[in-house]
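User: My advisor, Dr. K., asked me to get a structural model of this assembly before our group meeting. I'm new to this, so sorry if the format is off. These are the inputs:
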Amino acid sequence: MKAEKTRFDEMDLSRYDFINEDEPAFRVEKGLNETVVRTISKEKDEPSWMLEHRLRSLKTFYKVPLPVWGPNLDELNLDEIITYSRPDSGMNESWESVPEGIRDAFDRLGIPEAEKEFLGGVGAQFDSEVVYHKVRKEVAGQGVIYCDMRTALREHEALVKKHFMRLVPPSDHTFAALHGALWSGGSFVHVPKGVKVSIPLQSYFRLNAEGAGQFEHTLIILEPGADLHFIEGCSAPRYSVINLHAGCVELFVGEGARLRYSTVENWSKNMMNLNTKRARVEKNGSIEWVSGSFGSHISMLYPSSLLVGEGAHSEFTGISFAGKGQILDTGTKVIHSSAHTTSSVNTKSIAKNGGHCITRSEVIITKAALHSKATISCESLMLDSESRSDTIPAMDIRSEDADIGHEARIGRISDKAIFYLMSRGLSEGEAKELIVRGFAEPIAKALPMEYAVEMNTLIKMEMEGSIG
Amino acid sequence: MSRIQRASLKIQTLPVLTWRHLQMNGCELDVSFEQAPFLPSDALLALEKEALLQRIPSLSPEGQKEEIRNSESNDGDQSLTSFVRKNANAGYQVEIAEGDTRTTPLVLDYLLDEGNPTLIETLVVDMQPGSSATLIKGLRTSSVGLRSFHAGSTRVHVGQGANLTLIQLRFLSEGATDLDQLSVTLGEHASFSLVEIVVGDAHSYIGTHIDMQGNASECSIGCMNVVDKEGSSDFNFHVEHKGEGTNSTQLVRGALLNSASKLFRGTIDFHKGCNKSKGSEDEYTVLLSPAVKNRSVPLILCAEEDVEGEHAVSSGRLDSNALFYLTSRGIGEKRAKRLLVEAQLYPILALVSDKEVLAEIEEQLFRRLDSHGY
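Assistant: The format is fine. Below is the predicted structure of the whole assembly, which you can bring to the meeting.
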């Protein structure tokens, strides 16, 4: 009798897939036009330079074409997207003040509990606005500023103006321009010189509204010698229409500073996740990206590191898991433009049930990047033949005095490994789950314990199914 | 009467695109060339006389075997194939009969010189089931600085159980433009080996498409590129695994001198249904000057679970520890450097069993290295 293949069922999304029925206090009409952009700016009572920035970005958006590479984005119809939706809540510094429905949503996601246990500060965004932001006294006492972007624009305008969309200019690509026109919400962090924040800060982005877009902006500035771990989380309930996420993250890592930026992303599978993340790293500074991509219908996400200072370092550790109906086009870019810079890239991808993983990377070594080193490793796991996995790395080396190594592997779970584990008493399903968890281990190890558990739970849920 | 012709070509397209700003997705080239007949050498005429080579009476695909026509329609670089068909001034067909095992290599040498500065040629190779042969195709320029132009379209079908080794030599100097597209289809248990040798300072664009339709077919590509001065080499190797149990390897070794540049595109493409197939790519480039440009985009595309694919790409200077070790053993610095460069290129040189050919490759190679103190 022919053995039936193992079947991996879709994930139980009940923890993330719930809808808050509260009506927003305000939302713009569907679609994108100058009136919408002006309305958003007016709603936020912004300085005139920001309105001008938005309008310039809108003009750029109309000029910049959609990418010709990558997944097909024809399903995205901006005429059907509500680009700004303000919940019926102001900004709060205690969970008690947050309206009950919204508070319940974040309770179910475990945010207040995590805040109590191991976070130095939390920001929580619901649709287009941040509804909660708080930083622990001891962290604030170090001089750390952690607030929502709206507050930052009001209270730290000069700092925001100096850095806002300087790393990701609106002309960079279509969705950077769209972000420049429509951005709303997000977090601002400033860590003073030499300050080391020992407990992580976290911002959580929840997109609740059907057919809506979320365009939060995260701006983090680490002064020389500072140290921070920042965690970003995101989720949304599932709808039958397309939702859009086009956020932007800009990270400025000063001389000798170190920033770890961790993300466990679990967007619903009707989400277009077209996010842009970029870090600029000064002399002897270090950026560490830890990235888990589990959700979304289509993702195009490539955190980038610009190593501009001598001895700057970048590390990227990422995993993506694409199931039915998902195209996860993820990876990273590193540009070495100074001497003695180093980078390492370690990506893992898993494709199942017709999912499509694309791992894309770019490493550029400029002429000035003497004595630089880069290593890139990509591993892909195919769990069935309905799925697809593509590896597309690119290297551009303009310096003789640089060492570059790249390796990639693609394959299935080894029959021998399954046989061995089954001979030790594990079922086939348990054996496969164990192997996949082992495959993802380098990423889990880079996350704080609680998030590693969360990621393993997501993997377990993805892997659970009937074993034939 | 000769006249200058111009054409715009779109070639070397990646099977799956990457970021546009990297400028690795393909080439759009404007070329100019002198339209003139190409007069075959005495050696080629001798092969024609012996009926080992047949001139192709018509360069159109009609009238050719289905497998050959298929290789053309699948080559992914129609514009070069069309250009060659429209402008060809030379064309040969080689047919190795069923079960015929040739022990002596068939040699096609083309020399670009002042009398023959333009070669636009097509070559069709039909390896019938169970046959075996080695084909050596050489492209040389007579003098440095000669403005010359080569465009080639080679289509190969290797039938069931047949075996072909194709060695392509490119010793082209500054002033030469070289465009080439090789398209190969493999039948069941067929085996194809390509050894691609590039030594010079021309601008070469070398596309290779291998369609592994036949179950248990095998393909190996060995490529050595040593590029000097302002020269450039641009490779686009695309190996499609379609049959079950197919096996491919791509081994690329290079050295860049002076202001030379190289772009390597290598794709292993596993189609659905190619169970138990394996593909590997291994590229190393030694960088011998601060002004060189070295670019690589090695792809693995996979639509089948039960396969194994891997690639490795690396580049760097000569290993200073190894250099120190060799010099500490009494070997002069120049000799030690030469040994280290040779060691990097050796895996490809080892694929050439013909002593005369190997001697010519080494002569070309050492002359280049000598002029730079290696």
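One thing worth pointing out at the meeting: The two ends of chain B are 45 Å apart (CA to CA).

User: Perfect, thanks a lot.
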